[in-house]
Amino acid sequence: MRVSERDAAEIVATAAELADAAREATLLHFRRADLTADTKESERFDPVTVADRLSEERMRAILKRRRPQDGILGEEFGAEAGTSGLTWVLDPIDGTRGYLSGTPTWGVLISVRDEAGPIYGIIDQPYIRERFEGGLGRAEVNGPSGRAVLRCRGARPLSEAILFSTFPEVGTAEEGAAFRRVVPQVRLTRYGTDCYGYALIAAGMVDLVIEAGLQAYDVQAPIAVIEAAGGVVTDWEGRPCHEGGRVLAAANREVHAAALALLRG
Q1: CA dist., res. 67 & res. 184, Å (int)
Q2: Please, which residues bridge with residue 140 across strands?
Q3: pLDDT band at residue 172, thresholds of 50, 70 and 90?
Q4: Which helix (H) or strand (E) holds 133?
Q5: Which pLDDT score is estimated for 43?
Q6: Helices marked H in 118-212 — which ranges?
Q7: CB contact set of 107 (below 8 Å; sequence gap of 6+)
Q8: At what angle do helices 195-202 and 216-228 cross, to 10 degrees?
């Protein structure tokens, strides 16, 4: 759907208010010695904290006040239908394991989607106060060094590329094997950066992020930010990945094509 200039400005202003509220909520508990976590799964540690819940609660309250006509999909409290054709997709803390560990690589993900996919997104790192936004004619980062335009890195050989992923095992055994076909072909591989790796693609620092097993709230803000900065985000078959799953984010079409060929085997 087309968004009017006035509505676009309202979306951007609302998203900024959400991000500010989530910053405050998450920093109340970050690096606190008494912070504990529950796990959502019995088979593995999938943590959730009081800060995850508080962050999403505060964002939802703002949306109900400012944008009651829009739908909401959040990691902690699920989906609420709207009537406008727009849905806010919220991940109150992406990278809760990093949050628990005290590393500043977790973030708050906020995006707005229509029936075709995300149209605007924010990746916010509260502790270092760095905010990446993209979509609706915007592509910029605002942080400790001031404001700057976001622009993905230009094409260069895969052998010179920097690759990020959150987990070394990536996903299933089959997915891990596909990922390990790419690793020997790049210059440098790094792990554990969660959503911050996607932000660094948009900032022109990283060439690739490859992950699997993601949810819609994990990917929609990164998709909006990276595409606004000139990058490409698809699944491992080159198709849209708005609902998550296997994700290949790339700084440009050339490095995307090279990595995609290896993932396909």
Answers
A1: 47
A2: 133, 149
A3: very high
A4: strand 130-135
A5: 64
A6: 173-182, 195-202
A7: 93, 94, 95, 123, 124, 125, 126, 194, 195, 196, 199
A8: 10
